[in-house]
Design a protein that fits this description.
heterodimer; A: mainly alpha; B: 5-stranded antiparallel β-sheet; 18 helices
Chain lengths: 66, 476
């Protein structure tokens, strides 16, 4: 899954009509560091992003049970 | 009936293929940029803003101008997406970050960050932050990728942040904090030092160094721990109403970290070489006079001073040539020269970190995206002073190979110094080794030299041991 990160990001950005940010991969790590610049709101967004990941993880655990 | 002039051949820059807005090509020793419709729109926005004029007048960026080139038709036929062509100023000698010294990379980094901050005042940003967008005109960095400057789109992050870290911040931090030369890393890692590699190189305690916790460890943690197919990642910037103020805050934070990085001196002996050398003051003066005399006569277009150390002879050469490439394998010596040039406004010298026994090769796609050092120019004259014995006795390079190199770069002249085995420096080199160099002697050297070059001048230094030659290539 990790390998698909840059591909997906580039894909998402390339379909954007603006030409300003069209061709380099900003990297998930770099984007998440920048989200923190949003102060408290940024931390909130970060928690939300990771919350989604956690719940997804637990959902998967649950689904895996026989 | 007049016969139309043939259209000169255009050559696309091999490394210019990433930006969908256009590409660079060369024609008749001139540099052009072919632009797509989007590239042209972006360029117009920038060209019409007061930012462009300010940046150009202050030499922050290379000059560009609308041009009348006969190749528009030829290029449009081959690349239908191209709608316009602009011309831009030529850089006298292209160099790459893996050939720069510490302060050169640091100045290029600060130049990029300051350019971002200036641009943001006019609503512009940089689409990327690659170190290859910067070149040096003497000791002054200049930004060459005009298409990288584009209007900022509200709700978007600093796209070049990670790229800046990998190509500028990490290499500088590696040298400053770990005392490791960054040049081989930048030569190997085409996109810059990867996050996980930098984290490993810094070690566990590296997080205590200024900025490293955030820009290396936190970024690495996020990079490896986050499921980035989450579509909320991109929309987060819109929901946070991300603006240039946010981008600038990060740029300023990175600038603060970069500004605080300094190369710790390892007290390598090459920087001290000019103080420790084995020959006397009259010999040094005789050597300087010899070099000065021949360069004054030649007035060469370009000089390569190979094994320049801290640039003693490059500083003589620059009196007679506008382009002196001062190359040495020791990054500290090169940095010393760069700082001297910067402090004294010496614009004719380009100091570069380069090992003559292993010069920068062609790199990147098809080994053509970055040209090899030897393919980037043809020197009028090559200076090889106090270098021969290191090449022959430390690196086992035969005389024939040395003259073959000079032929390959099409040097018209060479000023070369023969240092005999009786010289104290050579004795030091051979002190703990078996002398397996019976061929290293003056007659053998002259035999090889005169196969390809004719003698212009020969001068024995006062003690009669070292011999200076000025040679001219046959047929020149």
């Amino acid at each position: 899954m990790r390998k698909t990160i840059p591909v997906l990001l580039v894909g998402v950005i390339v379909i954007e009509p603006d030409y300003a940010l069209a061709y380099i991969d900003p990297s998930a790590g770099g984007l998440l560091v920048q989200i923190l610049l949003g102060g408290i709101a940024g931390i909130g967004v970060l928690v939300k992003l990771y919350w989604g990941k956690l719940t997804k993880f637990f959902r998967k655990e649950k689904d895996d049970r026989p | 009936m007049t016969v139309p002039e043939p259209i000169p051949e255009f050559v696309r820059a091999s490394g210019s293929y990433r930006d969908p807005g256009g590409f660079v090509f060369f024609q008749n020793n001139r540099v052009f940029r072919a632009l797509t419709k989007d590239g042209l729109a972006s360029y117009h926005d920038f060209r019409q803003s007061p930012l462009y004029q300010w940046l150009e007048e202050d030499h922050w960026i290379t000059r560009t101008w609308e041009t009348d080139t006969s190749s528009v038709g030829a290029i449009s036929a081959k690349f239908p997406e191209i709608t316009a062509i602009i011309e831009q100023g030529r850089i006298p000698f292209i160099s790459y970050p893996y050939e720069w010294s510490f302060d050169m990379l640091k100045d290029a980094a600060l130049h990029t960050l300051d350019l971002l901050l200036h641009s943001s005042r006019h609503g512009f940003t940089l689409k990327d932050a690659t170190a290859y967008n910067v070149q040096f005109m003497g000791p002054r960095p200049i930004f060459i990728d005009i298409l990288s400057i584009a209007k900022y789109v509200p709700g978007t992050p600093w796209a070049g942040y990670t790229q800046f870290c990998q190509q500028f911040l990490f290499p500088l931090a590696l040298t400053a904090h770990k005392g490791v030369d960054f040049q081989p890393f930048l030569r190997s890692y085409f996109e810059g030092i990867p996050l996980h590699v930098m984290k490993s190189l810094l070690g566990w305690w590296g997080w205590r160094k200024a900025g490293m916790l955030k820009h290396v460890f936190l970024q690495s943690f996020f990079q490896t721990g986050f499921q980035a197919d989450n579509p909320a990642l991109k929309s987060s910037f819109q929901s946070l109403k991300f603006s240039l103020d946010h981008v600038n805050a990060l740029v300023r934070a990175v600038k603060k970290v970069v500004s605080q990085l300094h190369q710790s001196s390892s007290q390598r002996h090459w920087v001290e070489y000019s103080k420790n050398r084995s020959y006397t003051s009259p010999e040094i003066e005789a050597k300087q006079r010899f070099v000065d005399k021949h360069l004054e006569t030649m007035r060469p277009h370009s000089v390569w001073d190979l094994g320049c150390n801290t640039g003693e002879f490059s500083l003589i050469a620059r009196k007679y040539s506008d382009l002196v490439i001062a190359a040495d394998a020791d990054p500290e010596s090169v940095n010393h020269l760069y700082r001297h040039c910067r402090q004294n406004g010496i614009s004719e010298i380009l100091p570069l970190v380069l090992d003559v026994t292993n010069p920068s090769p062609g790199l990147g796609w098809n080994n053509l995206a970055r040209q090899g050092f030897l393919d980037r120019g043809k020197p009028t004259i090559v200076l090889m002073l106090a270098l021969l014995h290191h090449l022959c006795l430390t690196h086992n390079v035969p005389f024939a190979y040395i003259f073959n190199l000079l032929l390959a770069v099409e040097a018209k002249y060479v000023v070369i110094e023969f240092v005999p085995k009786s010289d104290p420096m050579v004795k030091k080199l051979l002190a703990n080794r078996e002398d397996v160099y019976p061929w290293y002697n003056l007659p053998a050297f002259e035999t090889e030299a005169f196969k390809h070059f004719s003698l212009v001048d020969r001068h024995e230094l006062p003690t009669g041991k070292r011999v200076l030659y000025c040679l001219k290539r046959h047929g020149c």
